Amino acid sequence: MPAAADRALVDKLVLANRILYKKGVVDGFGHVSARHDQSPEHFLLARSMAPALVRRDDILTFDFDGAALDADGRRVYLERFIHAAIYRARSDVQAVVHSHSPSVIPFGVTRQPLRPIFHMSGFLGEGAALFDIRDAEE
Questions:
Q1: Tens digits of per-residue pLDDT, 52-106?
Q2: List 41, 79, 137, 138, catalytic entry
Q3: Is 126 considered catalytic here?
Q4: How do residues 43-52 score in pLDDT, each as one tens digit?
Q5: What CATH number matches the domain at 7-102, 3.40.225.10, 3.40.605.10, 3.40.50.300, 3.40.830.10?
Q6: What residues have CB less than 8 Å from 100, skipping those under 6 apart?
Q7: Which of 25, 51, 68, 120 has the smallest C-beta neighbourhood within 10 Å, fewest atoms?
């Protein structure tokens, strides 16, 4: 088990869940995670619950295989594998938001690629990766 994450990071993650819900970025099933500040091979994510209700004690530690190290029987998000895959592939990523945005969902269920349409989305020039959760094993 890695060292405990910085208290301020956990507090920011709790606030991020609540703010993203309040602002409509995530719905009742969306969530946000953060890379562990003391152990870059781990990340923090709330247990499976509505983001508007997340509290400090709901934040769990996960490894890059998506295994919860401290769940103690609490349910965890199935989408944790998406977070794990992103952190494993990109050491520069410090946080991940999983949302069910109606404007983006079609790109995950059709063969239509996500393409840049204005100058601030140039990072999509080579395309966006698709993660199929069926490829991840629990």
A1: 999 999 999 999 999 999 999 999 999 999 999 999 999 999 999 998 777 766 6
A2: 79
A3: no
A4: 999 999 999 9
A5: 3.40.225.10
A6: 26, 27, 29, 30
A7: 120
